[in-house]
Each structure stands twice: as C-alpha cells, then as structure tokens.
Amino acid sequence: MRSPAARTFALMIGGLAVLVGGVWIGQGAGFIKGSFMTGSPTWLAIGLLCLVGGLFLIFLTLRRGPGGGGADSGR
Q1: Which of 35, 40, 64, 73 has its CA 20 to 30 A from that of 46?
Q2: Does 73 fall in a domain?
Q3: What is the mean pLDDT of residues 33-40?
Q4: Whole-number Å distance between alpha carbons of 68 and 74
C-alpha cells in the first residue's frame, strides 16, 4: 500500500470486518438475541471467518509500514 489513503481504507475495512464478525459470532453463539441468526452455527462460522479476515487485513496493512515496506520496495 503506497498511499496513506489506501492504508487508511484498508484499516477501516479490516476494522469493520472485525466488528461485524464479532457481532455475527455473538449472534451465532446465542449471546445476542433478536435475530434470525441467533443460535445458528452457520453465522458463528461466518463470523469467525469475517473476524479472522479482518485481523489478517489489519496485520498486513500495519506490517508493511507507511511506505509500502514490502520485500521488494527498494527496487
């Protein structure tokens, strides 16, 4: 990610995925009531995938640093 705007966007998308995944996990596990997703193992699994994907995107974005910082960034 070379531009600060792209990094910010990736962090926002990753953060949103973590939040949404957390809500879906809560609903799928039955902790959050009032939805058709409540108590559904399917939404628990989808929430876990969303949460892990968001954390992975955040990790990749922060690991590369402000200038891109990848292995071939000096070429």
Answers
A1: 64
A2: no
A3: 90
A4: 10
Report the percent of the chain where pLDDT is more than 90. Answer: 72
Please report where in the chains the tokens 């990610």 appear, as a residue: 1
Give the global pTM: 0.80
Nearest residue to 7 via CA among 60, 49, 72: 60
Range of the domain at 59: 4-64
- Residue 56 phi, psi (nearest 5): -65, -40
For residue 6, the one-letter residue type is: A
Let me know if residue 72 belongs to a domain: no
